[in-house]
């Protein structure tokens, strides 16, 4: 079996020749054919071919001869080298040209070897890169100002589905308008279990970017042979720069200089001929040589050697988990690069267990907007499967909204001595920040535990979903900016010894909850509770309150599309916070279990964020195995609790706090979260997803012992009684939950009453004051309970639950639906191509 298709005349020769099949670990290399010697007259020659060919096109290699032909007898052979470095030589190919059709992408080498009459040997080679645009991802690079740029440094990241490209694959960027293939540096970060590429950071130098002109192209795999030699350096080649952060605290000046940190232990994040990046850390030291006990600095230093461009990200942290007496710090700050103040704030209150960053280009500022291909991102399985009809179909009003919102604006928040928000000017402790500057929180809501639908709640927050579907430059800036400002929340606990988020392996009783004694380790007698602020109230209280039940996904998508290490660490801090904010005994210490501590919605978003961290963290990063272990622990525990334990026949979770009353919409969040793990490749979640998704299907009137045991108009009810009382076992059937809720005064309220009318009838609609076929729970709202149900039903179809497709069809036929174009948080549809069953 050959990797190429040769012309018919040659194939006839192949059929009669000697051959052998050579195999490797990965592919069948092809046929090695022994040629006969052909004779012709020539003096000297060279062969030429188009350097880049699309897969499916014929490759033509032509021989150019010198004019002064001499009558010489020459023996010659054509040799073709495949992308995997196997060879094919053959007879009966004309000396003047060679033609073939490649059937695989990669780099092909063609050589013509000739031996003249007097044993004079001559060889000419041609290299052809065969690209398969179908395996590539589309990108658009757009200038955001009127300056013409040349040699523009570009770095971005993207994600791939399993088995699409190998992790050893080299990439190029094919610029369609210029018919040019630009070399690309590939920094592989994460791989799938089959060793195919999952996530990588890509860097290139664009030759030119003209004002008002976007460059479109395709990132394509091109094989191994065009991989540039590794010219990465151990330190920036450009030494003509200085950078430092200065903090003036209580009259003392503390400095942290960037360059000396390169001599310390550093992480080489990007490495190659196009770009190198180092992650470093340093102390703040005053003029007496004293190190600040709580504040520290971290830096990203990125250099593009070919252009001498330098990008520096400066980070100030107040995050040491066991720092003595942690507190808020007031200081003046300057970031100085090459003796120029690039950022300053004369009165910044740095919150405890928080961090901030500012990033700068040293020599130039290439203001480039990078558009990803939403279709490719959704197809990867790494992101929620939003309705493809929404791609480039977000309302102009919503895009304009974010243009207005992502502006500098001073905001004041007041809290009382217990940290609860109060009205500004009523005597509370007041905090004033610029919403898009350090210690602001961007588009996020300051008090997560507040109830009610909000744009930040969902599989992704609204700003991230709108960016993903629209690829709008301003919304992307707002999404990345809000991820930067995720550092402002006091959820960051770094182990000073390891430089990593605090590990519950090392400290199994580590916790941040209100009960300080909950951190006492009975084996070591040490209290592992993170340090507690003991200063006066104003130095301890913070204006923002984080939780798990309403937690947005801040950093996952930003890291996925940029490969920025700061976003990776934010993802780690938030995933770890969800472990630390539980009671150590209830979470089973280092096991890190969510099932018995968190609300159902909290379990949903905690599993989402934990799954994201385990999935996207680089293979060689020490936090990879840490989060993967907790994810597997939780999946195993849920499997035992529900799949094996089977507390009911309809797939409902047992509520932690509201039992015997359940909130189906919270349960729906969890169903989606578990199926999203299956989409990302965690097949151990499959049985759990199938069990859980029954709940959404049976509420739509399918899959129970009798069809329509549950009227689907109430599938989106606020509350549902799932047990007779708080001490009893769950009802075994969905019919019992329906009958026990219908028309009853259930604990916590929020039930329903069908008044004895037939399901979906005109009479029922009139009794409910709804349209016929309209579901309860704000059916026209994109954040209503039917919208919450949608993500679970989509998950049920993808999990291949019995009758799920019929349930989906019934759901989609409801009479009142929301317009998701301005609020796509829950506009998730099945990945399955066909809904017939």
Verbal overview:
The chain has about 850 residues and is α+β, with helices and mostly antiparallel strands. Helices cover about 20% and strands about 25% of the residues. The strands form 8 sheets. Strands 20, 21, 22, 23, 24, 25, 26, 27 and 28 form a 9-stranded antiparallel sheet that branches.
List the helices and strands and how they pair.
Layout: E1 4-5, H1 8-16, E2 19-23, E3 28-33, E4 38-40, E5 45-48, E6 52-54, E7 59-65, E8 74-81, E9 87-90, E10 97-102, E11 106-115, E12 121-131, E13 137-143, E14 149-159, E15 170-175, E16 180-183, E17 185-191, E18 197-209, E19 214-223, E20 243-249, E21 252-257, H2 258-261, E22 267-270, E23 276-286, E24 291-304, E25 309-318, E26 329-337, E27 340-350, E28 354-361, E29 368-371, H3 374-379, H4 396-405, E30 410-415, E31 421-422, E32 429-434, H5 462-470, H6 473-484, H7 537-540, H8 556-562, H9 565-580, H10 600-616, H11 622-644, E33 661-662, H12 664-679, H13 686-692, H14 694-699, E34 720-721, H15 734-741, H16 762-768, H17 785-798, H18 804-812
Parallel strand pairs: 6-12
Antiparallel strand pairs: 1-10, 2-3, 4-8, 5-7, 7-10, 8-9, 8-11, 11-12, 13-19, 13-29, 14-18, 15-16, 15-19, 17-18, 20-21, 20-26, 21-23, 22-23, 23-24, 24-25, 25-28, 26-27, 30-31, 30-32, 33-34
Helix pairs in contact: 5-6, 9-10, 10-11, 10-12, 11-13, 12-13, 12-17, 17-18
Any key phrases for this structure?
837 residues; alpha+beta; six-stranded mixed β-sheet; 18 helices; disordered N terminus
Q: What percent strand?
A: 25-35%
Mean pLDDT: 89
Overall SS class: alpha+beta
- Identify low-pLDDT runs: 1-43, 225-230
Number of helices: 18
Major sheet characteristics: 9 strands, antiparallel
Q: Rounded to an integer, what's the Rg over CA atoms? A: 31 Å
């Amino acid at each position: 079996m050959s990797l190429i298709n040769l012309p018919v005349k040659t194939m006839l020769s192949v059929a009669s020749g000697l051959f052998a099949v050579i195999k490797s670990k990965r592919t069948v290399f092809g046929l090695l054919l022994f040629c006969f010697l052909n004779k012709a007259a020539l003096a000297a020659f060279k062969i030429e071919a188009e350097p880049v060919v699309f897969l499916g096109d014929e490759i033509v290699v032509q021989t150019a001869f010198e004019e002064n032909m001499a009558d010489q007898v020459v023996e010659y052979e054509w040799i073709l080298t495949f992308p995997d470095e196997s060879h094919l030589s053959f007879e009966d190919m004309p000396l003047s040209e060679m033609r073939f059709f490649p059937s695989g992408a990669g780099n092909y080498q063609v050589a013509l070897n000739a031996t003249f009459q007097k044993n004079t040997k001559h060889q000419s080679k041609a290299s052809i890169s065969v690209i398969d645009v179908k395996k590539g991802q589309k990108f658009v690079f757009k200038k955001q100002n009127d300056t013409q740029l040349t040699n523009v440094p570009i770095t971005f990241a993207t994600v791939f589905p399993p088995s699409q490209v190998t992790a050893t694959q080299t990439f190029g960027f094919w610029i369609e308008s210029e018919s040019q293939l630009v070399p690309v540096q590939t920094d592989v970060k994460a791989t799938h279990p089959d060793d195919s590429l999952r996530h990588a950071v890509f860097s290139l130098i664009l030759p030119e970017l003209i004002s008002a002109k976007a460059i479109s192209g395709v990132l394509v795999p091109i094989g191994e042979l065009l991989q540039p030699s590794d010219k990465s350096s151990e330190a920036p080649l450009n030494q003509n720069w200085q950078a430092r952060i200065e903090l003036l605290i209580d009259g003392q000046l503390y400095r942290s200089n960037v360059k000396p940190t390169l001599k310390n232990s550093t992480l080489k994040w990007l490495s190659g001929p196009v770009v190198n990046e180092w992650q470093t850390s340093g102390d703040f030291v005053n003029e007496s040589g004293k190190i600040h006990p709580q504040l520290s600095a971290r830096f990203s230093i990125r250099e593009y050697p070919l252009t001498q461009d330098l990008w520096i990200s400066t980070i100030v942290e107040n995050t040491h988990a066991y720092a003595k007496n942690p507190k808020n710090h007031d200081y003046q700050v300057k970031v100085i690069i090459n003796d120029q103040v690039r950022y300053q704030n004369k009165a910044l209150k740095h919150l405890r267990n928080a961090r901030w960053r500012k990033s700068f280009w040293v020599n130039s500022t290439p203001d480039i907007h990078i558009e990803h291909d939403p279709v490719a991102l959704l197809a990867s399985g790494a992101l929620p499967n939003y309705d493809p009809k929404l791609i480039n179909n977000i309302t102009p009003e919503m895009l304009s909204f974010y243009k207005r919102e992502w502006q500098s604006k001073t905001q004041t928040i007041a809290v009382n001595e217990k940290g609860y928000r109060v009205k500004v000017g009523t005597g509370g402790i007041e905090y004033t920040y610029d919403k898009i500057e350090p210690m602001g929180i961007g588009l996020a809501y300051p008090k997560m535990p507040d109830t009610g639908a909000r744009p930040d709640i969902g599989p992704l927050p609204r700003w991230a979903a709108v960016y993903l579907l629209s690829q709008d430059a301003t919304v992307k800036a707002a999404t990345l900016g809000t991820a930067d400002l995720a550092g402002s929340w006091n959820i960051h606990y770094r182990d000073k010894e390891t430089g990593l988020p605090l590990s519950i392996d090392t400290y199994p009783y580590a916790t941040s909850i209100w009960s300080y004694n909950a951190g006492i380790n009975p084996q070591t007698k040490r209290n592992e509770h993170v340090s507690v602020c003991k200063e006066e109230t104003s130095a301890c209280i913070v204006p923002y309150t984080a939780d798990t039940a309403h937690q947005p996904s801040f950093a996952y998508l930003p890291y996925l599309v940029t490969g920025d290490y700061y976003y990776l660490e934010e993802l780690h801090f938030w995933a770890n916070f969800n472990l630390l904010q539980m009671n150590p005994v209830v979470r089973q210490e280092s096991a890190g279990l969510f099932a018995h501590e968190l609300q159902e919605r909290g379990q949903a978003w905690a599993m989402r964020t934990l799954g994201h961290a385990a999935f996207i963290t680089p293979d060689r990063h020490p936090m990879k195995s840490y989060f993967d272990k907790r994810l597997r622990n939780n999946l195993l525990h849920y499997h035992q609790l529900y799949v094996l334990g089977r507390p009911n026949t309809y797939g409902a979770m047992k509520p932690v706090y509201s039992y015997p009353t359940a909130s189906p919409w919270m349960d729906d969040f969890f169903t989606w979260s578990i199926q999203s793990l299956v989409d990302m490749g965690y097949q151990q979640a499959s049985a759990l997803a199938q069990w859980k998704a029954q709940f959404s299907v049976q509420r739509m009137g399918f899959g129970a012992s009798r069809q329509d045991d549950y009227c689907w108009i109430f599938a989106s009810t606020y509350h549902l009684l799932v047990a007779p009382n708080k001490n009893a076992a769950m009802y075994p059937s969905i019919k019992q939950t329906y009958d026990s809720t219908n028309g009853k005064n259930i604990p916590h309220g929020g039930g329903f009453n069908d008044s004895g009318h037939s399901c979906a009838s005109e009479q029922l609609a009139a009794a409910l004051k709804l349209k016929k076929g309209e579901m309860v729970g704000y059916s026209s709202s994109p954040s209503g309970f039917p919208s919450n149900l949608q993500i679970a039903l989509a998950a049920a179809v993808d999990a291949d639950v019995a009758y799920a497709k019929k349930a989906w069809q019934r759901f989609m036929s409801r009479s009142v639906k929301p317009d998701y174009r301005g609020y796509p948080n829950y506009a998730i549809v099945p990945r399955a191509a066909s809904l017939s069953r």
